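Hello forum,

I keep getting stuck at the same step: I have a sequence, I want structure tokens, and every attempt I make locally crashes halfway through. Rather than fight my setup again tonight, could one of you with a working pipeline run this one for me? It's a single chain of 209 residues.
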Amino acid sequence: MTTTISLETVEARASYGIGRQMGDQLARNGFEDVELAAVIAGLEDAFTGQDLKITAEQIQEAFTEISRRMREAEEARTAALVEEGKQFLIDNGTRDEVVVLDSGLQYEVLEAGDAEAEKATRESTVKTHYHGTFINGQVFDSSYQRGQPIEFPVTGVIKGWTEALQLMNPGAKWRLYVPYHLAYGEQGSPGGIPPYSTLIFDVELIEVR
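Reply #2:
Ran it on my machine without issues. Output:
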């Protein structure tokens, strides 16, 4: 429902801003099928000091039920994501060119690098280029796209990387298939990686120091 209003006064604009902020918060943290008319009715009643249209117990019961539905929906999404990643790794691990380690990490050698050069240890700092995607091919991060390699301690990254970097020859390029427990785990990453995500990285080990 769209209502035409005048926003010519300072008070109207500030009032609209309050409503917009509340709406943005509700859109981010609300639930499916929020009824805006009921939200507005509750806001109006609170602002004008009206009595509740339903009991406090009914409101609490509704909150509890919505929380239960949201929790169940999230659990279902999580289970589906875990199963999708698990099946992907099972299928991927059957390919001849893929090496499967005891940890669950999988890798594919794209370029072998210098077998005579000293490999990285847990105490090393490395310079790499990388390209990271979800298993559906969507890119979530790429130093190649930024045009700038990155340096970091071997132990300063996800577990899957720390393991792989110590196996790679300098100059090598590997494709890593990283199960969620060796990536960002059950929490995911604020940078846009959901919980329980299996990830794929093309990693080029440029330098070891």
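The chain has five helices and seven strands. If your local run keeps crashing, start a new thread with the error log.
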